[in-house]
Amino acid sequence: MRRRALRALGALAFWLALWAALALVMRLRGRGLLLPSPAASARRLLELAATGEFWRYTLCSIGRVTLGIALALAMGAALAVLCARFRAADALLAPAMTVVKSTPVASFAILVLVWLPRDLVPVCISALMVLPVVWANVCAGIRGTDASLLELARVFRLGRWRVFRRIYLPSVLPGFAAACRSAVGFGWKAGIAAEVLTVPRESMGRMIYESKYYLQTEDLFAWTLAVILLSLAIERLLLLALGRLSRGKGAGAGA
Amino acid sequence: MLEFKDVYLGFGAQAVLRDVSFSLPPGGRLAVMGPSGCGKTTLLCAAAGLLRADGGEIVPPAGGAAMVFQEPRLLPWLTAEENVNLVLSDSRVTLPRARQLLADLALAGAEGKYPAELSGGMQRRVAIARALVLERELLILDEPFTALDGELKERVMGLIDGRKCSLLLSTHERSEAERLHCGVMWLRGGGLVRE
Question: Which of A94, A177, A226, B74 has its C-alpha lying 20 to 30 A from B3's C-alpha?
Answer without folding.
Answer: B74
